[in-house]
Amino acid sequence: MTLQMNLLIAGVAVLCFAALVFVPWDEETITPKIVNTPVEKIVSDIDEPIISNFEQCIAAGNPAMESHPRQCRTSDGEHFVEDISIQSSGVFLESMKYTKNAPIIDEKKGYFVDEIADGIYWLVASGYQVMFLTTGEGVIVIDAPQPIGEKYLQAIQEVTDEPITHMIYSHSHADHTGAAGQIFPSNIEYIAHQDTADILVSENDPNRPIPTITFDDTYTLSVGNQVLELSYIGAFHSEGDMIILAPKQKVVMAVDLFHPDAAPYRAFGVTVNLDTHIEAHDTLVNDFDFDVLISGHEQILGTKNHIKIDKEFVLSMMDITTQAIGMVSSDEVIQRCVDDTMEQWQGKLNDLEKYMVEHCTAMKEYVLSQ
């Protein structure tokens, strides 16, 4: 082949290459379909974490479906459901069963203790119930019922080795607080409403140490990782009654206001003021955010529904007594009240008949005083 021919072939090749590079293509007809896979995508495919539960699914950026419990679906179709027994706040799901069913009390120990929310322990023994909290810096105890006594310390030692640093009086009555001086250290902080403190000072009972911290309306106790909000909403049972709320865990303690699933203690909990007693039901339901309530008695946890039922019971007795006063002689009012209330509430509340005469007597006095 001659030199001229070689040069001609080379020139044609150069022109063809230039045409490919510089001449615009018809994109609709000749654009090549090239799939470019970014390096980042290749790396992410290689290093993509294994997703095996709801939390990992959410952490990987997948959306949560707002169901109950929540659900998460990965891009490749895997489906995970949130384990709602694992909670950072509120009452533990498994503890909600105690709003209907009483726990089994170990006969040898004589008490039941369980963590019902983060750091909050519910203690049930001898017809009473209390709560105490671990804080990381010490234990906060609430009340010290005489019938529980030393079992209180045994329950605490069963779940923690933290020392007791604070004791809160729900109110002054010795049946709920009279073991304090016997079982708790004398050098801890004792907290009470001012009215309760005044009563304890006047009664001078060594088994109920004088409070070192008092308040009139509200007080916030912050110890370690726990916060309690203490409130006075009136003397619904006795002078100096206190509401104790753990806001993070949604647990409240209000002692001797009512008995969940049962009729009240005699004369509506021997309340000093029936109007305030009734109002306290509404205040707790409307103004406090909680899931369960520790009532001081019975063997189940209370709820807002229990509070509503108790209020309904009190108001129904008020209506029954008012009608009886207008229909029968004064001597017959109490018996009519007993009979009609028993007929209306039979099978709805435990211990209905136990204090019925005392309830009707107190309600007759109240209605006649209005």
Could you characterize what this model shows?
A hairpin with a 2-residue loop joins strand 11 and strand 12 (226-231). The chain is globular and about 80 Å long. It has helices at 3-22, 27-30, 39-47, 54-59, 150-159, 174-177, 180-183, 194-203, 266-270, 274-287, 304-327, 333-345, 356-369, and strands at residues 64-65, 71-73, 79-81, 112-117, 120-125, 128-134, 139-142, 164-168, 189-193, 213-215, 218-223, 226-231, 243-246, 251-253, 292-294. The N and C termini lie far apart (131 Å). It has 13 helices and 15 strands. The protein folds into 3 domains: 24-81, no CATH class; 93-302, Ribonuclease Z/Hydroxyacylglutathione hydrolase-like (Metallo-beta-lactamase, Chain A); 303-370. The chain has 370 residues and is of the alpha/beta class. The longest helix has 24 residues, at 304-327.
Summarize the main sheet: 7 strands, mixed
How much helical structure, as a percent, in the residues? Answer: 25-40%
Shape: globular
In CATH terms, the superfamily of the largest domain is Ribonuclease Z/Hydroxyacylglutathione hydrolase-like
User: What average pLDDT do the residues reach?
Assistant: 88
How many strands in all? 15
Number of contiguous helices: 13
Quote the beta fraction.
Answer: 15-25%
> Rg, please?
35 Å
- The CATH class of the largest domain, by name, is Alpha Beta
Question: At the third CATH level, what is the topology name of the largest domain?
Answer: Metallo-beta-lactamase, Chain A
Q: List the helices and strands in order.
A: HHHHEEEEEEEHEHHEHEEEEEHHEHHH
Rounded to the nearest angstrom, the distance between the terminal CA atoms is 131 Å
Low-confidence stretches: 14-35, 37-47
CATH architecture of the largest domain, please? Answer: 4-Layer Sandwich
Counting copies of identical and different chains, the oligomeric state is single chain
Order the strands across the largest sheet as they lie in space. 4-5-6-7-8-9-10
